[in-house]
Amino acid sequence: MSAAAAVWRGHGTTTTTINITRQILKCTRWQLEETTDFITCPYHYYCDSAYPGDLSPAIGALVAAFAAYCLLTTFFFTILDIVPRGAINSNGNTRRKYMVPSGPFLLPIVLLALAKGQRINAVFPVSRLGPALLLTLQASALAFRNEADGDLRYAVLEASTVSGILHAALYLDAAVLPFYTGTDALRWSRFSGECATCLCRMDPLVVGGNTVAYRGLSKTALAIIFALCSRMVCRIYGEERVSAWTRSALEVASWVFVAGDAVYLAGWAFAAAAEEEEGGVVIVVAAAAYALVAGLVFLCIFGKVYKFLAWVETRQVPWKPSVSCHNVV
């Protein structure tokens, strides 16, 4: 936690120090050099990649507004699913799929934002807030099923969602893994002085570092992909007992993994904010964003449990005695 807070506070105030810190946090290729100092510098690394620079702050503002819209719409339609149908005028699933982040209209925009995430560092730094956008997408894909008239159209729509979830996880890792690696490098290394990014370490530098355990492409993303594929199989070939139980088990496991990621990231962000003495704006915003995403995930889980209990209640048959008064002698 302290490593992340130290990086978010920044290392130094001079322009040169800030540029070096940014280059380390954005480095995508580290080279290991041979060293003769096996006592104080057994591992000597330097950054062997160039950072093209940040995109315009206006793009970051657009991504921030889009992420807020995705979160609000997912909240809205989740509440709409919990409220009884007769109490509110619903627009139907057809319109909903064009307004949620997992739908065919907004999903490409999510992928574009994450694909350019490494260079988006103003207003909405994807390396720090990108996991919140991915969690919103994953919760939306699990909470709202795709609706289509024919099986072929449904299969294409569901397959595009599966592909989008996979690519979103890969794009996010391309943005956050260099940041996590640089965080670990700045925290547990010292500058050797041979070049601007030359670092001496006592242990090997691991991709993604050891400070943050979150990854975009993880068991959470794989469980969601399998759950969506099982939905597609059940829709096309019909829901038998085994396939229905398999789909339900995969969806439950996916919700457990998503909730675990949301709680972990929220706790990590709050711990970093607590260690921030000056109350950095980015850290406070990140803590609030991850808290809202965690609230969304648990609201979705509550909605699923509520609907399941309502379904169980409707399936219950009132008990009737087998012996009537006419049979009593």
From TrEMBL:
Give the keywords, sorted.
Membrane, Transmembrane, Transmembrane helix
* Taxonomy, superkingdom: Eukaryota
Residue ranges crossing the lipid bilayer per the database entry = 58-77, 255-274, 280-302
Under which name does UniProt file this protein? Answer: Uncharacterized protein
Q: Please name the source species.
A: Leersia perrieri
